[in-house]
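Moderator note: this is an archived Q&A kept for reference. The question asked for a predicted structure of one protein chain; the sequence and the answer are reproduced below.
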Amino acid sequence: MQLTLAQLRKLSFPYSFEEELDLSKELNGFEDIKSSSLVSVSYLIKERGIDTYLIKIQIHVDLVLEDSVSLKDVSYPIDTEVEELFTTDDSIDDAFIIEGMTLNTKEAVLTNILCEKPMAYTEEEFESDIEEDEEEDKINPAFASLKDLL
């Protein structure tokens, strides 16, 4: 979503908006991402001061990741909701800075998708290779009388 500060100042808040973004160029080929669907995004914008906006962003995207064990393609849906602060005031920590005169949410959406994506993902199931040690169940005869104390 791209809105100029002039457009934002004319809105009545809270303001909601929905869009689909094609972030395939940015996502595809990133680490183990093979492909991605269109990103469905819903916004709820609230004013928090002069040229400062709190935006609740709902993101849904289907990624195709490379399985970290089998290297096969596996589907991984991301459905998340985040709140991000956008401002022209660069002294505010943890906020996206509105550069120029346009608020652009693309970077925030992309950042949150990458934060939600696991570092490694597998659908493989593993059986335990650990065999139970039968020796642990045997009691040393020297300590057999202590067993009754517990």
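Archived answer notes: The chain has one domain: 2-119.
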